[in-house]
């Protein structure tokens, strides 16, 4: 379908201004509050820079020199000489922990965690009971995650705690001693136990025998129970719990009695667990004091994210921070003393605005505001909306309408989030802003199975892949058409990961509803997808993939999965399709895209395929992102009639290419 371009009174914003690497990201204060570390571009990739808190970027020192892939996650240590960061290889998610010498920033980074392929760093505790060391969770034994103590200066590594049950997690107190254990049972519940013995030390810790406290959870926790934080005194475990209600609260389980008490709850709202996807980059679930680990505030899902303060002393800090922005507090870093704070705010039209606040003086200074050719008024407000699905389930969504265009009969892009156990929330979405600037209405739907909207909402997705979960998306399109926003003949669907699967379901289950589709690292064959996920993850499938979709090793369930897999319905596809895939994707392997593309081409159905050999589960490198969104721009402009820049349709050359 070729449509007439949609008019607009706003200027076309260059694609790079939406998808270039940020000039300032993931800032954190040193423990003494004198220095700031952050990610910023260097050599075509994000690298780590360090500067004094009173200095500017012109005075900063570049301390890493990665030219293959950007660095986002770093950690200060208790020694001011060393900084740590995580990095994988071309998106393969085999994370390693590297050491940077701040006294000699030009020297090569040191890999503190050499491992065989398939093993990775899964967690880091940069400050421990033994100065100069860090604790690192790794699966050097591929199926088991053990805790190691690493001497940062020498790299000497010893086993701190061996864990031989892949369903179990031992949680340490602030003296690095085993305090609690959580075990995912075959039935999907979680057993919470306490340890009454255990000694700290540089060698192996004897955890002793766990004592069962209580059994919690089930299918309402498809991503596991989050958070799992040992309290600062070691006598309690903080977890997310629905209790007997429908909404997720933060509760404390007592180490002695097993009694559960509420730490934070907001009527009608869930604790926001989405920060677990990228710790240190996304806003956290729980804000904690850096030195003591005490809970300061808890983040909840709402039309605009809600921060519930629970610490009276932090209330003063939070009140001062709120005055700095009309957005919502996002990532936050402080010094050990809790005097200096670096706060980044979530906002739908001003991303990444970051302030330095000194609580001792009450003074604040702007650290970063993106320098762009446009201002907030040139971007489209993101508006929370909700409407009922056909069975009455409330679908909380985000609507972004183009600026300067009457919101009537617009081409619509249905943007479907990944997971599926995540959610779209109010804030800056470069994809939504980019598409709105091109003249599209953008609708992001928190379909059933999305987290953040209660126990009933998430569990309503059990058995509903390609069924009611897809019906929710169709109901959302029907709502947008009924409201007059969308032209029913110009609707596109776009998504990554589960969203890519949803796009493929859209053009197979309902082939007449969409005029264009984009599948970005999406699943085409549910059984193959599950069989090719990393083996060490499989013990954790009981409450997500096995419970919600099925077990491919059970013939009857495999047949049902095939019936809901786009690859078995590929003969129904006639919608123009764009497919994008990273060759190193370990979550959705390349075959998921190769097979759908090959099948279409065998039938002579046109399909555009972007394959990036240096990417994994999503395109991180700037040249690949540019290539992807140029292709999306051209694809939707051709088939939905939105605007396009002069370079659309002619993506630049890169390491990858069209296939």
Account of the 3D structure:
With 659 residues, this protein is α+β, with helices and mostly antiparallel strands. Helices cover 16% and strands 31% of the residues. It is built from 11 helices and 36 strands. The longest helix has 19 residues.
Overall pLDDT level: 94
Beta-strand proportion: 25-35%
> What composes the largest sheet?
9 strands, mixed
- Please mark out the parts with pLDDT under 50 across 5 or more consecutive residues, or reply none: 1-5, 198-203, 649-655
Taken from the alpha-carbon principal axes, the silhouette is globular
Put simply, the count of helices is 11
End-to-end separation in angstroms reads: 22 Å
Rg for CA atoms: 24 Å
Fraction of helical residues: 10-25%
Spatial strand sequence of the major β-sheet: 28-29-31-30-32-33-34-35-36
Total DSSP E strands: 36
Give the arrangement of secondary structure elements.
Elements (H helix, E strand, L loop, with lengths): L15 H4 L5 E5 L5 E8 L2 E8 L8 E2 L11 E3 L5 E6 L8 E6 L8 E2 L9 E5 L7 E9 L2 E8 L5 E5 L6 E5 L5 E7 L5 E6 L14 E7 L11 E3 L5 E6 L7 E6 L5 E5 L21 E3 L6 E6 L5 E4 L2 H11 L5 E7 L5 E7 L7 E5 L4 E6 L13 E7 L5 E7 L9 E7 L13 H8 L3 E5 L9 H5 L8 H15 L3 E11 L1 H12 L6 E5 L5 H7 L12 H4 L6 H9 L13 E6 L7 H13 L4 E6 L9 H19 L16 E2 L1
Parallel strand pairs: 30-31, 30-32, 32-33, 33-34, 34-35
Antiparallel strand pairs: 1-2, 2-3, 3-4, 5-6, 6-7, 7-8, 9-10, 10-11, 11-12, 13-14, 14-15, 15-16, 17-18, 18-19, 19-20, 21-22, 22-23, 24-25, 25-26, 26-27, 28-29, 29-31, 35-36
């Amino acid at each position: 379908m070729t449509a007439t371009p949609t008019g607009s009174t706003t200027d076309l914003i260059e694609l790079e201004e939406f998808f270039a690497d940020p000039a300032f990201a993931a800032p954190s204060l040193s423990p003494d509050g004198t220095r700031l570390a952050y990610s910023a571009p260097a050599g075509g990739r994000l690298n780590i820079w360090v500067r004094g808190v009173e200095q500017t970027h012109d005075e900063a020192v570049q301390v890493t020199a990665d030219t293959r892939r950007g660095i986002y996650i770093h950690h200060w240590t208790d020694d001011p000489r060393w900084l740590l960061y995580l990095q994988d290889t071309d998106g393969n998610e085999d994370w390693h922990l590297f050491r940077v010498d701040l006294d000699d920033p030009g020297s090569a980074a040191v890999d503190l965690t050499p491992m065989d392929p398939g093993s990775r760093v899964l967690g880091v505790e940069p400050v421990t009971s033994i100065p100069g060391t860090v604790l690192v969770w790794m699966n050097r034994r591929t199926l088991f995650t053990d805790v190691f103590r690493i001497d940062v200066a020498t790299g000497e590594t010893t086993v701190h705690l061996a864990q031989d049950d892949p369903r179990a997690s031992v949680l340490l107190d602030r003296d690095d001693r085993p305090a609690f254990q959580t075990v995912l049972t075959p039935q999907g519940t979680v057993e919470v136990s306490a340890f009454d013995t255990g000694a700290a030390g540089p060698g192996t810790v004897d955890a002793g025998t766990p004592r069962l406290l209580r059994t919690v959870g089930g299918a309402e926790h498809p991503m596991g129970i989050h958070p799992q934080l040992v309290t600062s005194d070691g006598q309690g475990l903080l977890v997310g719990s629905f209790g007997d209600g429908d909404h997720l609260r933060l509760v404390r389980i007592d180490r002695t009695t097993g009694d559960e008490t509420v730490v934070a709850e907001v009527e009608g709202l869930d604790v926001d667990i989405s920060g677990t996807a990228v710790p240190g980059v996304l806003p956290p679930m729980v804000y904690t004091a850096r030195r003591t680990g005490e809970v300061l505030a808890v983040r909840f899902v709402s039309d605009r994210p809600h921060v519930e303060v629970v610490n009276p002393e932090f209330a003063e800090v939070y009140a001062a921070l709120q005055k700095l922005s009309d957005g919502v507090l996002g990532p936050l870093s402080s010094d050990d003393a809790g005097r200096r704070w670096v706060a980044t705010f979530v906002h739908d039209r001003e991303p990444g605005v970051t302030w330095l606040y000194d609580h001792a003086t009450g003074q604040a200074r702007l650290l970063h505001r993106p320098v762009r050719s446009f201002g907030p008024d040139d971007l489209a407000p993101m508006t929370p909306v909700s409407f009922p699905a056909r069975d009455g389930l409330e679908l909380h969504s985000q609507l972004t309408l183009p600026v300067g265009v009457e919101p009537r009969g617009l081409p619509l892009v249905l943007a479907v989030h990944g997971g599926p156990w995540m959610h779209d929330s109010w804030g800056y979405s470069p994809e939504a802003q980019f598409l709105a600037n091109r003249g599209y209405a953008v609708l992001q739907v928190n379909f059933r199975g999305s987290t953040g909207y209660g126990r009933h909402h998430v569990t309503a997705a059990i058995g509903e892949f390609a069924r009611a979960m897809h019906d929710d998306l169709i109901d959302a399109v029907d709502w947008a058409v009924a409201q007059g926003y969308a032209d029913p003949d110009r609707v596109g669907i776009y998504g990554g990961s589960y969203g890519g699967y949803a796009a493929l379901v859209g053009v197979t289950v309902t082939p007449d509803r969409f005029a264009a589709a984009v599948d970005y690292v999406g699943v085409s064959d549910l059984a193959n997808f599950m069989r090719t996920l990393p083996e060490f993850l499989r013990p954790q499938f009981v409450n997500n993939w096995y419970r919600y979709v099925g077990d491919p090793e059970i013939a009857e369930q495999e047949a049902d999965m095939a019936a809901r897999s786009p690859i078995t319905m590929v003969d129904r596809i006639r919608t123009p399709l764009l497919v994008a895939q990273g060759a190193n994707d370990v979550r959705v392997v390349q075959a998921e895209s190769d097979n759908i593309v090959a099948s279409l081409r065998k039938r002579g159905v046109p399909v555009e395929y972007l394959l990036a050999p240096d990417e994994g589960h999503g395109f991180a490198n700037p040249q690949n992102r540019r290539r992807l969104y140029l292709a999306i721009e051209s694809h939707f402009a051709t088939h939905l009639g939105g605007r396009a820049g002069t370079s659309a349709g002619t993506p630049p050359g890169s390491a990858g290419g069209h296939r």
